[in-house]
Design goal:
The complex is a heterodimer of chains A (103) and B (172). With 103 residues, chain A is an all-alpha fold. In chain A, 75% of the residues lie in helices and 0% in strands. The longest helix of chain A is centred in the last third of the chain and has 31 residues. Chain A starts with 6 loop residues before the first helix and ends in a 13-residue tail after the last helix. By secondary structure, chain B is mainly alpha-helical. Among the domains of chain B are: 78 residues, Up-down Bundle (Four Helix Bundle (Hemerythrin (Met), subunit A)), CATH 1.20.120.1200; 33 residues. The chains are: A mainly alpha (103), B mainly alpha (172). At the A-B interface, α1, α2 and α3 of A face α1, α2, α3, α4 and α5 of B.
Chain lengths: 103, 172
């Protein structure tokens, strides 16, 4: 079965989005924006899963995607709670300021 | 140009542009809005992959619930756009280098010409494989391995809710 848009195009798009997310995580110091970049990376992975699920005619790719969305929702809730409590104790959320665990 | 190909490019180009704007915007609220646009375009991409149910979940959970949480925290902390929040000099260059290195790795492994062997996709799986009915039947089918991860996901969500309350509440 051949598709109008080959699966490889979707995989390449997914790779590009993942790289953009990595660039954001590595260059941003605002943890909220870093979280958004992590969401971009998770979304890129989701796109890859759904594209491969379509390619192999298997619904498992879509179920993986939904599990990832559930984990992402939990991750965002915890992460934003950490940011709020970080702001409460330090009055700033700059990631370079939060270096208590650094040697 | 076939309509499917046209739709792919009409979705893909704004999607990459929105992702780039998320990481280049100085104002976190603007980043959040571009991320919403990115996620809605991705939902359209899921539709074009005939995954209707996942597209709906993407809009409701990601573009709806998760982004509301983001915007809520941005408003709650009220940092203003004045704070400089980008890595400077060496850190920035290292970040970009890391991303480009990863891109080179992807291109080097030839992700777009990997020669995927033809799957079992048929016109039937394309037409019906993404409906809520098909996904639900697969999710709760005892022959398939998805039931246990589904139950674990509910525990993960419960733990996240309890953990978020414990972390963010001043006094329990």
């Amino acid at each position: 079965m051949s598709f109008a848009v080959p699966t490889e195009h979707y995989l390449l798009l997914s790779a590009v989005l993942f790289c953009i997310g990595v660039a954001g995580v590595a260059t941003k110091r605002n943890p909220i924006v870093v979280f958004m970049c992590i969401e971009i990376m998770l979304n890129a992975a989701n796109l890859g899963f759904v594209a491969l699920g379509r390619h192999f005619g298997d619904v498992g790719g879509q179920i993986y995607t939904m599990l990832i969305i559930a984990v992402a929702a939990g991750e965002v809730a915890i992460g934003l709670a950490i940011i709020v409590s970080l702001f409460r104790t330090r009055e700033t959320i700059d990631l370079d300021e939060a270096d208590l665990l650094k040697l | 140009m076939r309509p499917g190909v046209l739709i792919f490019w009409l979705l893909a180009v704004p999607m990459v542009a929105c992702a780039l704007l998320v990481i280049t915007s100085r104002n976190p609220l603007r980043s959040a809005l571009f991320l919403v646009a990115h996620m809605l375009l991705l939902a359209g991409m899921f539709l074009s992959l005939s995954a209707q149910y996942v597209a709906a979940v993407q809009v409701v959970v990601y573009a709806g619930a998760i982004m509301v949480l983001f915007v809520f925290v941005i408003m709650l902390l009220n940092l203003g756009g004045a704070q400089k929040m980008d890595a400077a000099g060496l850190g920035w260059a290292l970040g970009i280098a890391m991303s480009l290195g990863l891109a080179a790795l992807f291109v080097g492994t030839g992700v777009w010409k990997s020669g995927l062997h033809a799957g079992k996709a048929t016109a039937k799986t394309l037409a019906q494989g993404g409906t809520a009915q098909a996904v639900g039947f697969a999710l709760f089918d005892p022959e398939l391995p998805w039931l246990f991860p589904f139950e674990v996901a509910s525990i993960v969500l419960l733990m996240a809710a309890v953990g978020a309350i414990v972390l963010a509440k001043r006094k329990l």
